[in-house]
Amino acid sequence: MAVKPLEDRILVKPVEPAKQTASGLYLPESSTEKPIQGKVMAVGPGKRLDNGTIATLSVKKGDTVVYGKYAGTEVEIEGVDHLILRETEVLGVVG
User: Fold this and answer.
1) Among candidate residues 4, 13, 6, the one with its CA nearest the CA of residue 80
2) Pairing of β 90-94 and β 64-67
3) Which one of 6, 36, 40, 56 has the largest count of C-beta atoms within 10 Å of its C-beta?
4) Domain locations in the chain as residue ranges
5) Measured between alpha carbons, how far is 29 from 16 in angstroms, rounded to an integer?
6) H or E stretch including 73?
7) 9-14 β-sheet, strand order
8) What is the per-residue pLDDT across 53-81, written as a single tens digit (0 to 9) for each?
9) CA-to-CA distance for 3 and 25, rounded, in angstroms?
C-alpha cells in the first residue's frame, strides 16, 4: 500500500534506538526512549501559499530527520510503525 502525504506533510519511518551500548551491554525495554530520528519515506507536494503558489519542502525522500519526541501522528502501514509530520515539526536533517 502506498501512502502519499498531502500538503506539507512528511511520512517518516522512525529509526529504532540501540538495544545495546557501545561497550556491549544490553538495555532493557523500559530504559529506551521514544525515537526522535527517522528516515523520510514520502513527502507531500508542499503547502499552498496565499498567492496560489506551492512552497517546496526542505526535505526529500531518503533524508534522515530529527523531530520532537511527541511530534506527528503515529500510523501503522503494512505492520510497520510510521509517523506523519508537518514540515514545521521537523527540527533538522542529519547528514
Assistant:
1) 13
2) antiparallel
3) 40
4) 9-15+34-94
5) 12
6) strand 73-77
7) 73-77, 80-86, 9-14, 37-43, 64-67, 90-94
8) 999 999 999 999 999 988 999 999 999 99
9) 38
For the stretch 48-60, pLDDT in tens is: 999 999 999 999 9
> Which residue type does 92 have?
G
The CA distance from 42 to 58, in Å, is 13
User: How far are the Cα atoms of 20, 32, 84 from residue 13, in angstroms, in the given order?
Assistant: 21, 17, 9
The residue count for the chain: 95
Q: Which residue has the cell 526512549?
A: 33
Rounded-to-integer distance, Cα 69 and Cα 91, Å: 11
